[in-house]
Design goal:
- By secondary structure, this protein is mainly β.
- A 5-stranded antiparallel β-sheet has the order 4-3-2-1-8, with no helix packed on it. The protein has a 4-stranded antiparallel β-sheet with strand order 9-56-31-30, with no helix packed on it. Strands 10-11-12-13 form a 4-stranded antiparallel β-sheet, with no helix packed on it.
Length: 679
């Protein structure tokens, strides 16, 4: 049976529209929408419903030259069954024939609805003509209104797994991107024909190959190549006939684990990249001449942040755009002119950004301005105009041919909060779960509240789960701040957190921010409440040294210096603190009289306040043992250690009364590349 493709297709109790690849079940559109490849598989099945379709046919017809495993067909069938409301055990749509293939068994018929066969079609036609006339008149009278509308995002890729770091060849015909297949831990470089579902794996290494960029001629490619043993920028020639890389050359070697995954070309001989050499050093932007092999450091950022994380060049503007992270959660947009060697600040945003893209004429920069937003930053006046606002997360914008912008749709990971009992040998179970990011669990002992950070409402907000299991959002930030180091007092009255290197105190009942420290020249970190709930203790960085300070909740303007230290936790007794100093594994104790005592306890590499917790008799902490993070209990009196269980996160919270531990677990999420055309 043939189908026109212009009408809807009735598939059993579902309705499918080929023109838009939309599927309706029980009168409601199925979400998430089918990807182009999933739609192709569905169409191939129902169009051949008179026979059994082999796996090889599906793989050849739907996947084509794409480099994927044969088990991808099983994944597509699983997705389609879920969308159709079907079951593998009792199929009503797709039946599996073992070792043979699949057959579409539901009734299939074309649902042609013609205006000419309906009563009142003349009225409908008249209304249509009037609407067209109205649209035309609006276009004539107000042409800019219609011309300023952006097109809806369109899919660029549809592979299963994760896709990121896109770049387009100078002729606009090919897209190169990084792909992490489902069930694998390494990123591959993949080449795709822009207007076809044709994919070519360029390397197939067991290491990470990411962030590839075409040279201005389109004949060369630079990319990052790294794992636990190697960290390099590589150069390769593109064999366009065979769609593979050849003559691969190592340009630069870096210390392990230090790569910001950002680089680009200025011309055929000069590349720019972001890198650092030491753990306490911020990322810097450097240039490298491929002919002379000379490296030149361009920027020298301050140490109160990650540094210069991203760089992007515009041929039209003749300038580089640089993203500088300041205070760990604020980003400055800088412009560098290689001719004059001048560096100037264009804008500052309360977000941690990693990628930026120029528009086609070099007059503006496209960057993420919120969880689901893209904005165009004008070079002329530094103003930002929203160009895309979605209800799903978007990241990593990159320039396509013409005036189109590509970006990654979706989060690389989602996270849930698990609960683990210390009194019995059991599995950790989800206590807070969503399709978003739930993290930083902190427990109020007396109020029996669990506070946490979540993106379930679209942006990073602070949420509360009470003893009855009810969830409520207490913060209502208009922007999307990078909330770090969340803390709650034992009575459940206040939460403290760090955002933009500033210390903030929020009242839980009203959601009102009662105090913000202001960053100034200081960076704040690791807030905790005192045992009696009267004070807030935190660390502050001054001249590269970390110090502990205290503020009383009844007068937050007055700060009291305590001692040198990076992290503090209240002891069971009053006015006593356990203290961790920067880059030291020993645990110290600050006595009520201010004396500092070395406890002799070694907790390993403690980096965060929520990495260890103290009870009357024990210290619970997370440390890496044989490359595996473990939850460990140290008995203070007996001076013994017990390895309790594996833990996926260094940050956890302790419920002392009920002997429960809460931690975050991260799981990979599906991502794809999409694009939008600017006006």
């Amino acid at each position: 049976m043939s189908y026109s493709g212009k009408s809807s297709i009735l598939l059993g109790k579902c309705r499918y529209t080929p023109a838009t690849a939309t599927l309706e079940r029980d009168g409601k559109e199925v979400t998430p929408c089918l990807t182009p490849t999933e739609a192709t598989v569905l169409e191939f099945l129902y169009k051949n419903n008179d026979r059994t379709v082999t796996r090889e046919e599906l793989l050849r017809h739907a996947v084509g030259k794409r480099v994927v495993g044969a088990d991808i067909v099983t994944q597509y069938i699983r997705v389609l069954r879920k969308a159709l409301g079907d079951s593998a055990n009792k199929p009503t749509y797709i039946r599996t024939y073992q070792k043979t293939g699949y057959r579409f068994i539901a009734p299939v018929e074309e649902d042609v609805v013609s205006f000419w066969n309906q009563k009142g079609f003349k009225l409908g036609l008249l209304v249509s003509i009037l609407l067209i006339a109205l649209i035309v008149s609006l276009y004539i009278l107000y042409p800019t209104t219609l011309q300023d509308e952006n097109r809806l995002p369109v899919s660029l890729t549809s592979l299963k797994g994760q896709e990121m770091y896109g770049d387009v060849s100078p002729d606009g015909n090919f897209l190169v991107f990084s792909h992490k297949p489902q069930g694998k831990s390494n990123w591959d470089l993949v080449l795709k024909k822009m207007d076809e579902e044709s994919y070519f794996q360029l390397l197939g290494d067991v290491v990470q190959d990411v962030a590839a960029k075409f040279s201005p001629s389109g004949n060369q490619l630079i990319y990052y190549h790294y794992n636990q043993d190697v960290n390099q920028i590589r150069l390769a020639q593109i064999n366009w006939k065979e769609k593979r890389l050849q003559n691969i050359e190592v340009l630069l070697d870096f210390p392990l684990l230090f790569n910001s995954i950002n680089l680009g070309w200025q011309n055929e001989q000069t590349i720019y990249f972001s890198s650092k050499e030491l753990i306490d050093q911020p990322y810097q932007i450097s240039s490298f001449n491929l002919k002379s092999k000379e490296r030149n450091i361009i920027t020298d950022p301050p140490t109160n942040g990650h540094g210069d994380m991203a760089v992007s060049y515009s041929v039209m503007a003749g300038k580089w755009a640089i993203l500088r992270n300041v205070g760990w959660s604020k980003t400055e947009v800088l412009i560098y002119d290689p001719k004059s060697e001048q560096l100037s600040k264009l804008a500052s945003l309360p977000l941690l950004l990693y990628t930026i893209a120029w528009n086609h004429d070099g007059s503006g920069l496209v960057l993420r301005t919120g969880k689901g937003k893209l904005g165009l930053l004008s070079l002329a006046d530094g103003q930002i105009k929203t160009i895309l606002e979605t209800n799903y997360p978007i990241y990593a914008p990159f320039r396509l041919g013409g005036n189109s912008i590509g970006f990654m749709r979706g989060d690389l990971v989602v996270s849930d909060i698990l609960q683990y009992s210390l009194t019995q040998d059991s599995q950790a179970t989800p206590i807070i779960s969503s399709s978003y990011k739930d993290s930083y669990p902190v427990y109020a002992q007396q109020a029996k509240l669990l506070a946490f950070k979540s993106t379930r409402s679209g942006h990073s907000q602070i949420w509360i789960k009470n003893q009855q299991g009810q969830l409520s959002q207490i913060s209502h930030f208009k922007e999307s701040p990078k909330i770090r180091h969340l803390s709650i007092d034992k009575f459940g009255k206040y939460v403290a957190f760090i955002a933009n290197a500033e210390l903030h105190l929020m009242e839980i009942s009203s959601g009102k921010v009662l105090f913000s420290s202001g960053a100034g020249n200081s960076e704040h970190n690791n807030p905790v409440f005192s045992e009696d709930g009267s004070s807030l203790i935190y660390t502050v960085k001054r001249e590269d040294e970390w110090f502990l300070e205290k503020r009383h909740l009844d007068n937050m303007k007055i700060r009291t210096p305590l001692t040198e230290g990076y992290i503090a936790k209240p002891c069971a007794e009053m006015d006593c603190l356990y203290v961790i100093k920067r880059n030291r594994s020993r645990l110290y104790k600050r006595m009520p009289n201010g004396q500092i005592v070395d406890t002799g306890i070694d907790l390993g590499n403690i980096q965060f306040a929520h990495q260890f917790h103290v009870t009357q008799d024990s210290i619970y902490f997370a440390d890496k043992i044989d490359n595996q993070m473990m939850l460990i209990r140290y008995d203070i009196k007996a001076q013994t250690r017990v390895h309790i269980t594996k833990i996926p996160s260094t940050n956890f919270s302790l419920n002392r009364d009920e002997k429960l531990v809460y931690w975050r677990i991260r799981t990979p999420n599906e991502t794809n590349l999409e694009s939008i055309t600017l006006k």
